[in-house]
Write a sequence for this structure.
């Protein structure tokens, strides 16, 4: 045990002749009360007095604010000792990388810190960076979720991570020194040596066994599908090859299951299409019978009552919609027969156009019924593709131009182009919305279509200046066959918005409606699309 005098002398020698910054920091004062000569020189002061009387407290700010330095002092007081790497700014403003060690003590009733500071040399920084790099490499190599093997120029394994041993049933020492062909014996057939030499002459990152299925072989002789990618590096001018091995057993099983499911879906689609064709044929036959019965019942009041009873059993809304175009067809056909003269071609054309419009109306009604059937049977699904939204909107507007009343105009405002969605479903949604807007708006009115893309979401709205919908009716608009009281005199099936809502479910979209009686209606649909599809 050294005496007090020796201890004092030794402490002074260590303090004075230390090669590192050493100083006593008074916590209450907020600055140093004593520093050694190295500290004065390291921070660029002319003397210890200049250091201790520096009002700027250069060590503290920067790099730390007053609050951050206070927190660091409190942490050291709680733990007794604290070390960290940091950047220190010299008195003249030049920064340098240093290692800081803080030790808390109390002397003469005052809370103090022993501050030791070591400037890191370029060699120390390089050694530290190298150590960090090695640790990062070891962490990635050891814990990788893919098998990694390093081979020398002769194909001898010199390193392998744990997953390789787990995949192939070897311990790591058993793998080292063996050729890579032990793991993938049929990777290149009989020409492996030639392929290896070719790779050595022109090394590049590529997959192994291109266009061929590779199989790995375990130690017990069993095989399993693998994918192998190659890369390389040079060490002391020696070429080393890195093989990344991935077990694709689950992937192949999933692909086979997916193929089986696709085949099953194709069979189901064919069956469903046949069912739709059969039901369509049955429906057309029923319509033909109804028309024939209608002509017979027109001869007598009893037959007319029988026709009315038959229609009442059919869906009331569908009955109304079918009767109107059929009557137009019959009337126009009868009138055409009266225009026998050659100078009455104009009247015949007008009635033929009326017949065509009525037939198209019937087709639209039938399409709505069939759409409802497919939706409720679950046979419809979204099939997204990349397409130009502006082009789709232009084509759709051309399709509905024939529905415009005198003076009606359609204004389009599009702020996005390519999206990835089901173009067919989106077109049907647009046609329904535009048809409603034109149908329930008066002459000389404007229908506005807006489309914008934001955060991989398509916002599409159709605004009209029509009759509007009451608050009470808005709660039921998306129910089948519901029609608002404000449009009860206008032909319609009450299925349009119901079908739109179902289509949006397939597209994972939503619909919102705002309307005021006598002022118009705005319908807004929001549809997400895939992240990498839009420009």
């Amino acid at each position: 045990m050294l005496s007090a005098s020796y201890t004092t002398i030794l402490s002074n020698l260590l303090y004075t002749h230390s090669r590192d910054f050493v100083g006593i920091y008074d916590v209450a004062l907020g600055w140093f009360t004593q520093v050694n000569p190295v500290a004065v020189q390291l921070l660029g002061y002319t003397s210890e007095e200049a250091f201790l009387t520096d009002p700027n407290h250069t060590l503290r700010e920067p790099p730390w604010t007053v609050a951050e330095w206070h927190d660091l002092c409190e942490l050291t007081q709680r733990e007794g000792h604290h070390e960290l790497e940091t950047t220190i700014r010299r008195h003249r403003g030049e920064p340098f990388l240093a290692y800081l060690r803080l030790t808390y003590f109390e002397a003469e009733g005052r809370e103090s810190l022993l501050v030791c500071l070591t400037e890191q040399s370029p060699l120390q920084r390089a050694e530290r960076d190298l150590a960090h790099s090695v640790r990062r490499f070891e962490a990635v190599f050891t814990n990788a979720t893919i098998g990694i093997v390093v081979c020398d120029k002769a194909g001898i394994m010199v390193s392998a991570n744990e997953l390789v041993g787990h995949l192939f049933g070897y311990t790591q020492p058993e793998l080292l020194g063996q050729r890579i062909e032990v793991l993938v014996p049929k990777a290149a057939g009989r020409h492996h040596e030639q392929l290896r030499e070719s790779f050595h002459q022109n090394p590049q990152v590529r997959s192994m066994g291109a266009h061929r299925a590779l199989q790995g072989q375990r130690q017990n002789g069993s095989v399993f599908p693998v994918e192998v990618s190659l890369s390389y590096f040079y060490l002391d001018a020696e070429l080393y090859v890195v093989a990344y091995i991935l077990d694709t057993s689950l992937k192949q099983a999933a692909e086979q299951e997916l193929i089986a499911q696709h085949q099953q879906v194709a069979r189901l689609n064919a069956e469903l299409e046949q069912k739709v064709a059969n039901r369509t044929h049955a429906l057309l036959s029923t319509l033909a019978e109804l028309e024939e019965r209608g002509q017979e019942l027109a001869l007598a009041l009893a037959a007319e009552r029988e026709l009315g009873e038959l229609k009442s059993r059919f869906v009331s809304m569908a009955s109304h919609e079918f009767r109107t175009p059929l009557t137009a067809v019959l009337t126009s056909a009868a009138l055409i027969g009266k225009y026998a003269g050659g100078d009455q071609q104009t009247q015949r054309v007008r009635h033929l156009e009326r017949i065509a419009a009525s037939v198209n109306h019937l087709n639209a009604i039938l399409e709505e019924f069939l759409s409802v059937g497919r939706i409720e049977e679950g046979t419809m699904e979204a099939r997204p593709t990349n397409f130009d939204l502006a082009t789709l909107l232009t084509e759709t507007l051309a399709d509905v131009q024939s529905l415009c009343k005198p003076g009606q105009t359609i204004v389009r405002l599009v702020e996005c182009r390519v999206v990835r969605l089901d173009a067919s479903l989106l077109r049907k949604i647009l046609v329904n919305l535009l048809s409603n807007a034109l149908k329930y708006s008066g002459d000389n009115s404007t229908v506005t279509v807006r489309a914008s893309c934001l955060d991989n979401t398509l916002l599409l709205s159709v605004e009209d200046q029509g009759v509007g919908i009451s608050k009470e009716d808005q709660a039921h608009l998306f129910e089948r066959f519901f029609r608002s009281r404000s449009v009860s005199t206008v032909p319609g099936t009450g299925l349009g918005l119901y079908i739109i809502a179902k289509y949006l479910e397939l597209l994972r979209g939503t619909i919102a409606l705002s309307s005021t009686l006598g002022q118009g209606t705005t319908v807004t649909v929001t549809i997400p699309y895939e992240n990498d599809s839009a420009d």
Notes: Residues 249-297 form the longest helix (49 residues).
